[in-house]
Sequence to fold (569 residues):
Amino acid sequence: MEILLVASAFNSLSQRVYAELSDHGHRVDVVLASHGPAAIRAAVHATRPELIIAPMLKTALPEDVWREHTCFIVHPGPPGDRGPSSLDWAVSEEATHWGVTVLQAEAAMDAGAVWATRTFPLPLVGKSDLYRGEVSDAASAAVLLAVQRYAEGSFKPQSQSDPAIRVRWRDYFRQEQRRIDWDADDTGTVLRKLRAADSQPGVLDEVLGREVFLHGGHLEDRLRGDPGELLATRAGAVCRATVDGAVWIPELRPRKSSGDPAPFRRPAASVLASFQRPAEPRLPEIAVPLELGRDRHTWTDIRYRQHGHVGFLHFSFPGGAMSTEHCRRLHAAYRFALTRPTRVLVLGGSRDFFSNGIHLNVIEAADDRAGESWTNLNAMDDLVEAVLRTTDRLVVAAVGGNAAAGGAMLALAADLVWCRSGTVLNPHYRRMGLYGSEFWTYTLPRRVGGEIARQLMAEALPVSATRAEGIGLVDRLVSVPAQEFGAEVGHMAAALAEDPDLARRIAAKTAARQSDEARRPLAEYRRAELSRMRDIFFDLHSPYHALRSAFVRKQLRGSAHPLAMGDAR
Fold:
């Protein structure tokens, strides 16, 4: 069918729906609702769709559009749930089960007839993690079912006036309801409030006399202090005391009215440092060992554990973005992992993002943005090169969540890529005005061939996990819910480590690396890529700088078509 997607942003869910509908043979076009009703009407007139689907919509469709065309709205709640903050309420109230509903657009919000629905258990994770995991899985399945039912023509959607549907309207979840009372709220309450707002909109609070939004929240089991007291930093996060414990907050976002020149999310410790005078004392940096005991309940973004002949190097960075510091710490952890006597080393393995490459927010906040871009990219290249040069064991990239740009290339540096079936990959750089690095000119053609590599880079479209497996971008799909991905990877890695053929595979890998090095050294790939990237970074008129700033500051640029603007991450 001819399908038009209308979305307020070409976010992770919109990308997944786009990619999976395309996989099923549908012709899919996309228009951003944020460009206004005129852009939507123009797209409808130009594409003449048989069906319109809104996978992520913050504003109503124009009435003439939904009256003249069948329009499906993807609502992140079960049938009967209505309102603009469904997931916020679900996470805040710690619902045990939730759902996604595909309904037909009509005048009243979320009140249309139900074409499909899917339910799922609700884990104790942040809203954005949930959205990219369980919600995305349910939404994808529901959309595909609804499209199939519409195409067959015999299905009669269920009216929400049906007595079996319990209708419940819930208003927008406001900051007054999110606000933390540090003198009264226990740790569980604080974590619920933080998790219900982790990516957007954050929890408005005051830190060092400045208004900021808090993003993300994790339990701390040992540090203690007066309620609300800032206790320590770790890997860019800040620890804050509650009435009965403490929580780690990875990121802060200064309120725009605070006068901060960088009013967007970035590592909490760097935001605090920008508030302080040079002579003022800094919070202590509290490190934890890479190998953290199972009895510990604290936050860290990099962990190592070993089980038999398998090492697991877990990492999870907010938004999947990796700053210079993130890259250097992960590189150091990787070098540590190589000192351990293992046959298989697994990178990643967590739910949610694998990696999205260099940290655009940290770069945008830097005094020297070109210089920080260059430093960050070289740190990322150092990490990827270390993976490529590992020849004494098999390295597995366990991609449990979306990966883009240099983060996708980090995965491709491994010998094997195991990818959760709901993952979306963006193995390209063009939408940020970049040529790319991270040895993509070596690893991408090596996996998919030169022609497909050129196509992926030129089209710069999201790739579903299914298509990625079909073209050789990944080696194995792991068809489990997000919550089960880590355990399933553990079983698969243990079986790989006991494979009688493993020694031969490692020897073949070593020989192939030596042969490739003799044909063209890795240093030459890196030099050529970085030469192109250096020209882009240090040309302050290159599109990269405007695109990066617009992406970080959430400003629209360019065409009304999302595939012609910005970064699709």
